[in-house]
Specification:
By secondary structure, this protein is mainly alpha-helical. It has a three-stranded antiparallel β-sheet. Strand 2 and strand 3 form a beta hairpin. Helix 3 packs across helix 4 and helix 6 runs antiparallel to helix 8.
Length: about 160
Amino acid sequence: MKSLILYLALKSLTLNEGFVSHAYELDGVWHIGFGYNLEQHYGEPAEDCPNYSCLYWTREYAFEVLVDDIVKVEEGLAKNVGCFESLKSKARVVLIDMAYNMGLAGALSFKKTISAMCAGNFDWAAHHLLDSKYADRLPKRAERNASTLRGDYKL
């Protein structure tokens, strides 16, 4: 991973996710740090730690975990999106943000968006991104990502 992409992805994800030092529930799923999905990574909480209530992460530790996750997400995107390595930084960061938020499979389901990115048509990619359930569910995040693709929003 090039350091510029890592830096921009960190900037995007910390803005979009926010930081919470203790476990919190969102849409029935437990998270911590910068939106880290505890159930996906840890499974069910231990009996002596209901609802992950015993967990506390420092901002520094959450950044370390986020960096590791960004690297894994980027590797998954590079393996599954043929043009990923040749995309402009802004498109790579948007795909990383989407895959971090909804999982690799979720991001890969945006076939029209990815196809437009690969063709270099970022306005069309932004259009497809905003014409989705993702945009209905997370309108501010989707608009930031679409603006990034259009070049209106600078990371």
